[in-house]
Amino acid sequence: MLGHVFVLALIPAGLLAYVFHSLIQKLEHTKGDHRDALFSELGGSKTRKIVGFFHPYCNAGGGGERVLWTAIAFLQRTEPNVVSVVYSGDTDASKQQIIDKVKAGFDISLSPDSLHFVFLTSRYLVEDSTWPRFTLLGQSLGSMYLAWEAMSKLIPDLFIDTMGYAFTFHVARVLGRVTVGAYTHYPTISTNMLERVKSRKKWHTNSAIVSSSALLSKGKLLYYRLFMYHYANSLRLASFLMVNSSWTKTHIDSILQHSDPTLDTIYMLSPLVFLRLFYPSQPEPPKFARIAYPPCDTREMAKFPLEGRERVILSVAQFRPEKDHSAQLRAFHHLLKSYPEYSTPDSVKLVLLGGSRNAEDAIRVEGLRALAKELNIEERVQFVVNAPYPDMLGWLSKASIGLSTMVDEHFGINVVEFMAAGVIPVAHASGGPLNDIVVPFKGEQTGYHATSSETYAEAFHAILTLPSNEEIELRSRARRWAVQRFSEEEFEKEWNASGWKKWLVNDW
């Protein structure tokens, strides 16, 4: 009987082995032609190394994109023998248009001579809208297909994921036979997410339907357990891992140490175990990630005057659900309701500045406009959507208060920009803003934390009523800390310290 079961198990294992072997051979067969075509297009020596950056939303204009472009600009300045390739799903933009947007949005200059884009047509497979149910699983499987498309078009010498798609490591490392590394902004799944499901707390990752049902909550916990198991195994395929904050490092380090003996046993008894035969050997998997704080253009912002600030509360964040712009409107409404001295239109205003990436974001902006009207504050709120970089700098140069309401923000580069620009930050008491950014500098305060409409309003009022000398001292102190700790130079130093360069060897 056991013999028959074993034979039956070998059938799907054999099919999987055949498919994997065929895919590897297909990539190997076209690898040279694609590299020759790339070097013919760019010119120069064909002995140069290719570093591939997997960043399907490279043209989005957010903090994650600043990390990508700063890293590539650094390579262009310091590594003349390296060609940077970006795997992007932005098929509606040309290479030059993206370069121009990077310059306009971040003031980062890129050379087209050592930069190439591989445009991917399957990006919809990692869109939230494609997977209304089992979103984490769907997006992760979708990212694997997207990585397959990437490898089918060009195999680099080193593959670096800069968006957090760890499941792509299987495709690049096993099928593409490429060493992989990553810069992770946010873990795909975290212990916080599991705790919210356990406690049946409603959240943007845990709907009211699930949180209100004990049965559905148990089912989702099992789903998360399975996902965590495979996510941890994916991360262990990396040769080096960088993260953007101590919050992210804590979670990634914990996931790297995660074990589940029961699932290990189930896996060992399944046909999937035979796929391990195709996994190349590698040194000891990473036990921890290295922090490389995201770069901020602190030099330009540090030139802004600290005096003469307008009574503007400024938010700088993409119009994504987790940024919780509605909380900003409610906090501002609470300020106006609780403190009558701000009743006149010129006493204080709220400016929401951010990028709108797609139709869903545009709908979200309209919803926020409607909420402002419902709260009767629409005349005191200004929306600045998809502003060019100089316009953002203009607002940072004159605003008094910087507002961030995202809970468990992995880092918070917008908060760093506030501080470098001399804008006093008020950020949620969690994640990067709590642990890394808005922290005492030489034992003194650099900003404020809050957790509710009431505490945000209290912080606004405290800043708006600071004596002039204390206000200037606070702005100056916050700036000195931001410039010292979160500059491009600090990021570049940590990027090199990750040891990425020693893996730039094609040893298959």
TrEMBL record:
GO terms for molecular function: GDP-Man:Man(3)GlcNAc(2)-PP-Dol alpha-1,2-mannosyltransferase activity. Pathway: Protein modification; protein glycosylation. One of its GO terms (biological process) is protein N-linked glycosylation. Residues 49-255 form the ALG11 mannosyltransferase N-terminal domain. It catalyses: an alpha-D-Man-(1->3)-[alpha-D-Man-(1->6)]-beta-D-Man-(1->4)-beta-D-GlcNAc-(1->4)-alpha-D-GlcNAc-diphospho-di-trans,poly-cis-dolichol + 2 GDP-alpha-D-mannose = an alpha-D-Man-(1->2)-alpha-D-Man-(1->2)-alpha-D-Man-(1->3)-[alpha-D-Man-(1->6)]-beta-D-Man-(1->4)-beta-D-GlcNAc-(1->4)-alpha-D-GlcNAc-diphospho-di-trans,poly-cis-dolichol + 2 GDP + 2 H(+). Keywords: Endoplasmic reticulum, Glycosyltransferase, Membrane, Signal, Transferase, Transmembrane, Transmembrane helix. Residues 1-17 form the signal peptide. It is found in: Endoplasmic reticulum membrane. It comes from the Eukaryota. GO terms for cellular component: endoplasmic reticulum membrane. Its EC number is 2.4.1.131. It is a single-pass membrane protein. Residues 300-478 form the Glycosyl transferase family domain. It holds the Pfam family ALG11_N. Belongs to the glycosyltransferase group 1 family. Glycosyltransferase 4 subfamily. GDP-Man:Man(3)GlcNAc(2)-PP-Dol alpha-1,2-mannosyltransferase that operates in the biosynthetic pathway of dolichol-linked oligosaccharides, the glycan precursors employed in protein asparagine (N)-glycosylation. The assembly of dolichol-linked oligosaccharides begins on the cytosolic side of the endoplasmic reticulum membrane and finishes in its lumen. The sequential addition of sugars to dolichol pyrophosphate produces dolichol-linked oligosaccharides containing fourteen sugars, including two GlcNAcs, nine mannoses and three glucoses. This is GDP-Man:Man(3)GlcNAc(2)-PP-Dol alpha-1,2-mannosyltransferase.
